[in-house]
Inverse folding.
């Protein structure tokens, strides 16, 4: 009886705290046509305090969507264009010498914002990519001997072009693993394309999103995620999926063993849980279902499973392996 009361209380709290989601989706929809999947995943990252890697060809409104999200939430936003000549100091900031005073002062870089768009992150070498590691994991930046905490919410949204690989630098595995999700942005439907043309093929007109949500509401919603109910069987299901990516033979998928170089790390387990909670929150639910886990499993796992040369020779991708695991592991 007490459990029912608790669930009921959490349901009421979720209904109140998640009311802004619909307003936020509507406001972003005034500027971005379609791309609901991408918008929802960005919100999951924002609510779950997880960074996101966006992969898609140019022209799919990735930058527009991220800037619209920042505008609708009322957070500070910085876009960093990653290029081969970019330096870590261009991202984080540096010490500047003042000859008059004979001392150094700190000049903060663009990383000191709530939402960071790391555009074409694989255009810069590893030393620049790795400059983001401390900020992404520890939510802080060290310049010289001084460490600065980053203001919450803090979210890194990085983009990369899957087509043009000449002159690019693949992201180190340690950094890829720090992204909660890797989402693949696809082309719009025919009807969406028509609406895009009607909206955008006009000179001198540009829609602007209104600030409909405050950062305080986002932080309050994050606290509510901890109150969502998750059954032990769903927790076991999350662990089963990740363990299956490391030991596929344990679930009767021994045929995948020679195709997997390494599977998901414990970060995969943590992020599956967090992303499933955020997904349930978007549906205004106070509990997590196996379907929440399955809905975001591909996004959380696709970049965490490395395939062997044998898999590449057979043209088997990490997504193929994730799908086999989802089709095989028993759903509670």
């Amino acid at each position: 009886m007490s459990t029912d009361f608790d669930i009921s209380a959490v349901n009421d709290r979720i209904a109140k705290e998640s009311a802004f989601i619909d307003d936020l989706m509507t406001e972003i929809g005034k500027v971005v046509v379609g791309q609901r999947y991408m918008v929802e995943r960005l919100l999951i990252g924002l609510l779950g305090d997880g960074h996101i890697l966006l992969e898609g060809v140019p022209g799919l409104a990735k930058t527009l969507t991220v800037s619209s999200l920042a505008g609708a939430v009322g957070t500070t936003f910085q876009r960093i264009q990653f290029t081969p000549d970019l330096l870590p100091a261009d991202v984080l900031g540096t010490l500047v010498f003042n000859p008059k005073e004979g001392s150094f002062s700190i000049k903060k870089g663009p990383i000191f914002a709530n939402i960071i768009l790391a555009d074409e992150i694989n255009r810069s070498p590893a030393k620049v990519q790795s400059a983001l590691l401390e900020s992404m994991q520890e939510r802080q930046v060290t310049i010289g001997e001084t460490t600065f905490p980053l203001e919450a919410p803090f979210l890194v949204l990085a983009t990369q072009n899957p087509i043009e690989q000449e002159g690019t630098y693949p992201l180190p595995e340690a950094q890829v693993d720090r992204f909660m999700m890797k989402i693949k942005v696809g082309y719009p439907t025919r009807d969406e394309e028509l609406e895009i043309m009607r909206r955008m093929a006009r000179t001198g007109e540009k829609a602007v999103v209104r600030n409909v949500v405050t950062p305080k509401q986002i932080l309050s919603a994050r606290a509510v995620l901890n109150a969502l109910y998750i059954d032990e069987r769903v927790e076991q299901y999350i662990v089963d999926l990740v363990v299956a990516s490391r030991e596929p033979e344990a679930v009767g998928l021994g045929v995948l063993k020679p195709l997997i170089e390494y599977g998901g790390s414990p970060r995969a387990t943590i992020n599956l849980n967090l992303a499933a909670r955020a997904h349930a929150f978007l549906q205004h639910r106070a509990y997590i279902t196996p379907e929440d886990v399955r809905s975001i499993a591909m996004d959380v796992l696709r970049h965490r499973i490395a395939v062997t040369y044998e898999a590449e020779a057979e043209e088997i991708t990490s997504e193929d392996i994730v799908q086999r695991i989802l089709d095989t592991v028993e759903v509670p």
